[in-house]
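Re: adenosine-5'-diphosphate structure - here you go.
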Amino acid sequence: MKRTLASLDSAWVEGKRALVRVDFNVPLANGAVADDTRIRAALPTIRWLRERGARVVLLSHLGRPKGKPDPAQSLRPVAAALEGHLGIPVAFLADPTSDEAVAQTRRLPRGGVALGENTRFHAGEEANDGALAARFALLGDFYVNDAFGSAHRAHASTAAVAHLLKPAVSGFLMEKELTWLGHALEQPKRPFVAVMGGAKISGKIDLIESLLPKVDAILVGGAMACTFFRARGLETGTSLVEDDRVALAGELLGRAGEKLVLPVDAVVATALEPNITTQVVPCDRLPPGWSRYDVGPRTVRAFAERIMAAGTVLWNGPMGVFETPPFDQGTLGVAHALAEATRQGAVTVVGGGDSAAALVAAGLEGAVSHVSTGGGAALEFLEGRDLPGVAVLDET
Ligand code: ADP
Ligand code: MG
């Protein structure tokens, strides 16, 4: 178990500078934050520290600026959004590696908050450079990592710095992510059902392989299913199929046996356009020249039944091209089944940026047990890999 923020003594925390790595890698539009989900997710940690009189110094990356400053990827708009949430001014550290930044953190009042400019403006960040980490370490008296979404990367602000600043503990978001995702893997209430979809099988082969021995069933939808259909020798028309993964898909099918459940029908069309003519066809009746863009209604019913009978459900990847109605029905059906399963007492965990977005669009974000904020990090964790940003934190 990793040491958490709550284990720190309140009296000890008072007046100290907490260097907190957060994941404020948010979408920007017209110089403002377009989606503040990740900012809101960090608020419990920030508030806990402020209430105890800590001085809170936040670091994050944003986008991929490739090791040099890029005004379009500045965290300044995030500081403005954060001020709105906290109702206090947020000091902006224009260069968190400068002496001036260190002085700014020392001038913070108790409960004050500062935000450093994009860590990836420095080439040493992604290189996990010790010298850069040493500069970051000057900004705080202890370290908190709340950036679950960045925990699968060994970077200066997520890994090297945690060796230099002690204690190094997990924040509340990090703790919540590790608890829910860990719970699903380690002590799932059975039946344990995984629902997988999305565009490509290639990025998720490792996840399917590592889940197979743990789950009672994997329900497969999305374009991913098409690669499995090709492996079975079925017509896939113009559907998205990864030719170089067909052999592997066939091998997985053989190994998984009954556990791997494919769709029985599909919603097909000749092009991906809103309100285009569609057909619902059984999975072995795809007309050549047509493409599968969603699972069909019989599949939704079958998947929903399995989901609602489950004790634990892990969902990663939309069932269809949910961004383009009417191909959103399969994904919505799965989202509602997860909500119903949750009402009946199941533990339901959603990982993956697009699946989470679909859930939010359906207004069901609060209807499942946990929606992970970390796309790639959640996948790697569920694959059973050690996350470098977690491994470096203190043990209890
Ligand atoms: P997540 O972010 O939840 O892990 P992915 O990124 O793997 O999910 O996949 C999401 C994408 O998969 C969506 O943009 C969706 O449109 C696409 N997708 C799902 N089903 C299909 C399909 N049948 N054909 C083409 N694209 C699909
Ligand atoms: Mg995605």
